[in-house]
């Protein structure tokens, strides 16, 4: 759902702390409710009262707790559609009561909507510097003040100028107070609205000062306001001081270089940049600004591995040099685990906190599930044994008329019903009723609740059919490619042979030749030298890094097109509707999601599944996957990795996602993962697999004997130099 066409409804518990805290120290907000509703269903700009977020629109958070501490780096984890981006937007726009007005919040959005103005005539370096210091705002105020101060013929010019600037600032503050008053409720909402009314009077009174006649202005007032104009002008000019800008430019150059810009690109016009490079400019701007809270929504999407590693190191260093709180969303597990000190799990309309990275969280969760399962099994056995003695006592008491036995059985039954449950608290201490089970309950013991491990969707990839006769699926022999008008080769003597069940990973920096290699393999063009040979019965499935954008264009051109109708047209009778639905369902697009929701309404992650279905219905023996994880959430990346790991066909994977390459290509298993889950009986088939990771640099394909880790280690010197 496009956030631009929705209204966010927010409510929470409000305390005096929220009103009294003038600056950001930490956020600790209880009872947070967030819902979204379509713009047509809610009057634009009209805030809802307390509790409305629960009853209207799609509820994303219900009675959650938002806690952010200064200087801590948080990873926000959750499935697509659970509300991560909405929560980030609510924080960035200060829609949540309790976020101080003065809090400096900088945010990088996923889409180009938050990117630098593409119509700008500024160079990349200029645009990044100017936006990081809000140069337009400074120059707008200086354009009012400076001519007035330089006007020696009009002694009232400076006074009128400072009043204009002050009035514009008051109107900005009034808009923020109006938003704050609409967000608050109850007695504090009444107080905020009362303050708003008083401030409106102040703004109106100040507006009258702008038109005040000169003969009514006191000489003392004239002197004071003229001095104020001079002082404000000096402060604004200081922000544009060449020495300060020189230091900022030096830092900007380092940041841009770290994010992949070459020196010659610094002077390139922003208007000439593609969407991905424009977003890199926005990321550079965010990193240069001084912020209390830095929000980064999928910052690695358009970075190559060098850029990802540089940003990773930059954010780790930021923990030691600044008190900036970082709130990060990313599908890159290796990136999250390295950068983040704590994770926030958004699940079931609630926020759960864990001190440690996501890898530690998963390990701890599996350990707790294992421990609580054993405890539950032991308790069940204990209950069964007690129930058996109760039954025997009742039977014996009735047979002999022994009331003592019946009373004893009744006492045991009461203990079984009321006091058989959790014997330890959540902290691992001995369970105490008055401390660990507050409130009224039917039982005097808490039930043993075994948490579920978040697995996301389960994907199934149909097995690849056998070939009728053996041989390599695809073979590249001494392939070289030279584009017309380019003096150097884009590919240099590349040789590659792929057999059934092989796992081949290709990693490298942007511009290294990966896309050219894929195009040569797909026979988009004929190589300058060398040959490409394919098995005569090969069925090949190719996922392009632009597959999602292609489907989005299809959806915009035909607003009635759904995943089911698209595939029905493309299979041309090869599959019936039930088989198509089965395929879409196996990839996480079941029922009405496949048949009723138009393509233009599907998320990026859902469109990835549609693109996969378009390949898999043909039952290919070889999948060529180019940056397939870009639009997927954290859990779907894991689900797809698991599905591909057990598939019997061959895979050629181009990706910057280190976890995904290690899982699918190198066959690495996460810590504490059950061996049975990984196949167990398929060991013989696994041993037959050829697993190899290649790196590309300047058109040369080189085998990395140490896999992704070896390539990453080779980049460390370059990262140190860039930093």
Automatic annotation (TrEMBL):
Record-linked SUPFAM superfamilies: P-loop containing nucleoside triphosphate hydrolases
Acidic residues bias: start-end ranges: 670-685
InterPro entries, alphabetized: AAA+_ATPase (IPR003593), ABC_tran_Xtn (IPR032781), ABC_transporter-like_ATP-bd (IPR003439), ABC_transporter-like_CS (IPR017871), ABCF (IPR050611), P-loop_NTPase (IPR027417)
UniProt signal peptide: none
Entry's Gene Ontology molecular function annotations: ATP binding; ATP hydrolysis activity
Domain spans labelled ABC transporter: 45-373, 474-698
Pfam families in the cross-refs: ABC_tran, ABC_tran_Xtn
Location of the region described as Disordered in the Swiss-Prot/TrEMBL record: 392-419, 670-690
Keywords assigned: ATP-binding, Hydrolase, Nucleotide-binding, Repeat
Protein's name in the database: P-loop containing nucleoside triphosphate hydrolase protein
Top-level taxonomy: Eukaryota, Fungi, Dikarya, Ascomycota, Pezizomycotina
């Amino acid at each position: 759902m496009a956030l631009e066409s929705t209204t966010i409804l927010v409510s929470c518990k409000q305390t005096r702390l929220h009103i009294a805290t003038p600056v950001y120290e930490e956020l600790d907000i209880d009872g947070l409710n967030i819902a979204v509703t379509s713009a047509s269903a809610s009057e634009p700009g009209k805030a809802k009262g307390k509790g409305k977020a629960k009853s209207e629109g799609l509820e994303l958070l219900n009675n959650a707790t938002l806690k952010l501490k200064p200087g801590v780096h948080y990873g926000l984890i959750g499935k697509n559609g659970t509300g991560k981006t909405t929560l980030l937007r609510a924080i960035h726009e200060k829609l949540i009561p309790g976020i101080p007005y003065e809090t400096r919040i900088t945010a990088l959005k996923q889409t180009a909507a938050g990117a630098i103005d593409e119509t700008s005539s500024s160079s990349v370096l200029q645009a990044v510097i100017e936006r990081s210091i809000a140069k337009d705002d400074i120059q707008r105020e200086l354009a009012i003040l400076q001519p007035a101060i330089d006007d020696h013929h009009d002694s009232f010019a400076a006074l009128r100028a400072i009043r204009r600037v002050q009035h514009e600032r008051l109107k900005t503050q009034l808009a923020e107070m109006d938003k704050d008053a609409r967000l608050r409720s109850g007695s504090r909402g009444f107080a905020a609205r009362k303050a708003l009314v008083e401030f409106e009077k102040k703004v109106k009174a100040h507006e009258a000062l702008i038109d005040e006649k000169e003969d009514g202005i006191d000489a003392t007032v004239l002197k004071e306001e003229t001095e104020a104009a001079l002082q404000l002008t000096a402060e604004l000019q200081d922000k544009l001081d060449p020495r300060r800008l020189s230091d900022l430019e030096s830092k900007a150059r380092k940041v841009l270089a770290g994010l992949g810009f070459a020196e010659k690109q610094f002077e390139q016009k922003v208007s000439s940049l593609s969407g991905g490079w424009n977003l890199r400019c926005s990321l550079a701007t965010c990193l240069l600004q001084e912020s209390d809270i830095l929000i980064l929504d999928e910052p690695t999407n358009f970075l190559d591995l060098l850029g990802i590693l540089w940003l990773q190191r930059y954010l780790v260093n930021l923990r030691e040099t600044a008190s900036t709180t970082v709130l990060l969303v990313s599908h890159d597990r290796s990136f999250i685990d390295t950068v983040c000190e704590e994770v926030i799990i958004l699940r079931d309309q609630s926020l759960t906190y864990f001190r440690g990275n996501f890898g530690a969280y998963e390990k701890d969760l599996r350990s707790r599930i294992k421990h609580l399962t054993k405890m539950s099994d032991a308790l069940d056995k204990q209950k069964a044994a007690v129930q058996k003695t109760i039954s025997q006592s009742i039977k014996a008491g009735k047979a002999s008329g022994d009331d003592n036995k019946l009373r004893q059985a009744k006492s045991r039954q009461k203990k079984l019903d009321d006091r058989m449950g959790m014997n330890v608290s959540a902290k691992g201490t001995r369970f105490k009723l008055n401390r660990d089970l507050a409130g009224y309950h039917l039982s005097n013991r808490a039930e043993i609740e075994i948490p579920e491990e978040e697995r996301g969707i389960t994907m199934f990839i149909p097995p690849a059919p056998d070939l009728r006769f053996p041989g390599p699926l695809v073979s590249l022999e001494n392939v070289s490619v030279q584009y017309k008008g380019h003096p150097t080769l884009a590919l240099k003597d590349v040789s590659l042979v792929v057999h059934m069940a092989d796992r081949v990973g290709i990693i490298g920096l942007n511009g290294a030749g990966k896309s050219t290699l894929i195009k040569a393999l797909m026979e988009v063009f004929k190589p300058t030298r060398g040959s490409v040979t394919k098995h005569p019965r090969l069925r090949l499935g190719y996922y392009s890094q632009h597959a999602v954008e292609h489907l989005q264009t299809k959806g915009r051109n035909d607003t009635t097109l759904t995943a089911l109708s698209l595939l029905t047209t493309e299979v041309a009778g090869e599959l019936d509707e039930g088989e198509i639905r089965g395929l879409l369902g196996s990839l996480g697009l079941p029922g009405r999601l496949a048949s009723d929701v138009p393509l233009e309404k599907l998320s990026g992650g859902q469109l990835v599944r549609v693109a996969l279905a378009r390949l898999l219905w043909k039952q290919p023996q070889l999948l060529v996957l180019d940056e397939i994880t870009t639009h997927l959430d954290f859990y779907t990346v894991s689900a797809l990795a698991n599905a591909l790991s057990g598939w019997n066909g061959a895979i050629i994977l181009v990706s910057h996602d280190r976890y995904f390459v290690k899982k699918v290509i190198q066959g690495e298993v996460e810590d504490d993962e059950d061996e049975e889950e990984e196949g167990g009986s398929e060991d013989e088939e696994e041993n037959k697999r050829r697993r190899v990771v290649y790196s590309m640099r300047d058109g040369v394909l080189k085998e990395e004997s140490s896999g992704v880790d070896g390539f990453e280690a080779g980049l460390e010197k370059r990262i140190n130099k860039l930093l």
